[in-house]
């Protein structure tokens, strides 16, 4: 993913003693970006990814528009969780079990954001059409879109979390887990999807741009054939993302239905039967809905919802 820069060269540029690489204990006090990049490369080569991440993160803090710092930070964040080759292997073999999903989920947001900053020409030092940058965004950005949809309850767990509305199968298809779910489950998922939908759509749009940038630069037939196998493996992933977007739209439409009977029926589904209104509102608060207005702001069509809830509890 990265071209390894000679660490010794960086030492000479920064005027630092070679042995000082072993004396860095607090990267937050270092102000020489080139030196930090060199240290990051050193730690990447030695597979000390936590230390590499600290160095690159400090470099990004000092120069947020430094493309090499952004790429290095993303590289370290990824390698802390999983070798990049494992991501490629999982997609080529169409086997989601080959990647630690929660680990990649933790790293994917930063990786995608950093790559996108470079692709949009907002960082200096690397071409926005760089094949490696665009390839990483294409792979990780699409997977992040999947994880954002899977994590419907927002707890950071996407590995067979039965509390989520959707489950990722081994072949990257999505299993629908929305049947017989309570109002609270659907309310939480609906608000989560409403908030994340613009980001997910943006990821999909830029993954198309990344793919175009990549295909426009591949020269050898062998490379093009390999990348074709990658894009073929992504067909299930892309289809899953689009399916969940459609299904999540159905969830939000269901919540947005202002028919009192439909809303009150939702309350009792999945065996959910709050004994009183206080219990119900406490349950909503536990998923981040602290007042009814938060729900109606996300679903404007839920105009009759308050009356339905009041009638349900005899208020």
From TrEMBL:
UniProt signal peptide: 1-19
Keyword annotations from UniProtKB, A to Z: Signal
SMART domains: TPR
Name assigned to this protein: Tetratricopeptide repeat protein
Annotated organism of origin: Thermospira aquatica
């Amino acid at each position: 993913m990265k071209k390894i820069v000679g660490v010794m060269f960086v030492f000479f540029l920064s005027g630092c003693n070679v042995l000082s690489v072993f004396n860095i204990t607090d990267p937050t006090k270092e102000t020489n970006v080139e030196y930090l990049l060199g240290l990051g490369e050193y730690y990447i080569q030695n597979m000390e990814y936590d230390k590499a991440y600290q160095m690159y993160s400090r470099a990004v803090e000092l120069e947020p528009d430094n493309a090499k710092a952004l790429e290095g930070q993303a590289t370290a964040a990824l390698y802390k969780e999983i070798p990049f080759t494992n991501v490629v292997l999982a997609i080529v073999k169409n086997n989601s079990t080959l990647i630690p999903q929660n680990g990649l989920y933790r790293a994917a947001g930063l990786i995608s954001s950093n790559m996108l900053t470079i692709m949009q020409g907002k960082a200096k030092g690397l071409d926005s059409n760089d094949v490696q940058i665009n390839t990483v965004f294409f792979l990780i950005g699409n997977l992040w879109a999947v994880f954002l949809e899977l994590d419907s309850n927002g707890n950071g767990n996407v590995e067979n979390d039965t509390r989520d509305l959707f489950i990722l199968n081994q072949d990257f298809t999505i299993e629908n887990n929305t049947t017989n779910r309570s109002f609270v489950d659907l309310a939480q998922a609906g608000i989560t999807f409403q908030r994340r939908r613009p980001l997910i759509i943006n990821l999909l749009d830029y993954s198309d741009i990344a793919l175009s940038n990549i295909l426009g630069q591949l020269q050898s037939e062998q490379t093009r054939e390999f990348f074709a196998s990658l894009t073929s493996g992504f067909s299930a992933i892309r289809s899953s993302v689009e399916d969940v977007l459609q299904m999540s739209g159905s969830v939000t439409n269901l919540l947005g239905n202002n028919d009192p009977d439909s809303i009150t029926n939702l309350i009792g589904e999945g065996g959910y039967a709050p004994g009183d209104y206080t219990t119900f509102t406490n349950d909503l608060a536990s998923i981040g809905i602290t007042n009814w207005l938060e729900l109606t702001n996300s679903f404007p069509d839920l105009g009759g919802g308050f009356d339905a809830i009041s009638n349900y509890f005899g208020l």
